[in-house]
Amino acid sequence: MAKPDGRKLRFRHRTRRSPVGSSPGTLIADPSAESTRLTLTLISADKHRTIENAGIGEVVKNLDRWPLLWLDCTGLADIAMIEEIGQTFGLHPLALEDVVNVGQRPKVDFYDDNAFVVLSMIDDAVTLRYEQVAVFFGEKFVVTFQERAGDPFDPVRKRIESSISNRLRTRGADYLAYALIDAIVDSYFPPIEACGEVAEKIEDEMLQGPQKRQMQQLQQMRRSVNVQKGVLWPLRDALAALVRTDASFVSADTKVFFNDTLDHAMRLIQMVETERDTLSGLIEMHLSLSQARTNDVISLLTIVSAIFIPLTFLVGVWGMNFSPDASPWNMPELRSYYGYPAALLFMLAVAVGMYVYFKWKKWL
């Protein structure tokens, strides 16, 4: 389905699965997956360092030298590298399988020394293209996996790069994971709010007169909202699990921040529900207005036909052209000197009389 300007909307994200019968934890790359690229961010209270196009060797070398490490993996084509990352940080093979098989339902799983969070994020606000992002975090590390370049993490990166000490530099990996998850959740607000503004604009246009393109827009928007609803409900459950967890690597202070993100998710769900109801109402309104417009046209055509039926009858009768010379009963009006204008005036009187009658009956 395309937007009014011709751009395609990518509402659905197909879930990839391992082949039937394969061993649990088997990693198989998607042929369409983008090439893998690592960005390593090393963080301490007084300094930071970012390494673009990092290798596993640099990750291992710095793992014990910095209090906090964030490894961002963009692109899922290199299965060998993803397996090395899993071995380096002790990530569970089943979790890595969910990383590679994108399109998973948002969720959170807890393991002995790390947590695994799966989210769906909007990486293109124009076409509403979704992608899966996976977040692992433990005591001293955060590892994120993205399908492709582009994310809402720039504010987090800027806070890390800031010369002023802040929570991202002084707190642990759980707070950095919170900041990344919160950025993903908050990225849903602009498109949902934009949807509401477009819906109000369409409603104003519909009151002026319904058009076919409006129905197409409304159906596309409702489909988008339904997808957002399907993403946000399990996201709420995942955030609630992070708030309730008793894992040692999630501090009580960070749970307070996770609870705030949970509130954001609840607000988004309410907004989506409201937008869905609004769009459903507008679709029904469009159908009603279109039907009313059709009824008006049919009523007008019926009235016009009703007026012309007696006129057609009169014209048909006077058009039989029987000769009055053959019999005095054969159309004597044909010899009338003012017959033609008299006939026109009579037909006009019939038409005006019927129009006045229809107005009196409030059919017009």
Task: Summarize the structure in words.
The structure is a single chain. This protein is of the alpha+beta class. Helix content is 53%, strand content 13%. It contains 10 helices and 7 strands. The radius of gyration is 35 Å and the shape is rod-shaped. The model is unreliable at 1-12 (pLDDT under 50).
Instruction: Tell me the quaternary state.
Output: single chain
> What is Rg?
35 Å
Uncertain stretches? 1-12
Label the overall shape: rod-shaped
Euclidean distance between termini CA atoms: 41 Å
**Average pLDDT level:** 86
The computed structural class is alpha+beta
Order of helices and strands: EEHEHHEEEEHHHHHHH
Instruction: Give the strand line-up of the largest sheet.
Output: 2-1-3-7-6-5-4
Query: What is the helix content?
Result: 40-55%
Break the fold down into its secondary structure elements and pairings.
Layout: E1 37-43, E2 48-52, H1 56-62, E3 68-74, H2 79-89, H3 93-100, E4 107-110, E5 115-124, E6 129-137, E7 141-146, H4 154-161, H5 167-170, H6 173-186, H7 189-208, H8 212-244, H9 252-318, H10 339-360
Parallel strand pairs: 3-7
Antiparallel strand pairs: 1-2, 1-3, 4-5, 5-6, 6-7
Helix pairs in contact: 6-9, 7-8, 7-9, 8-9, 9-10
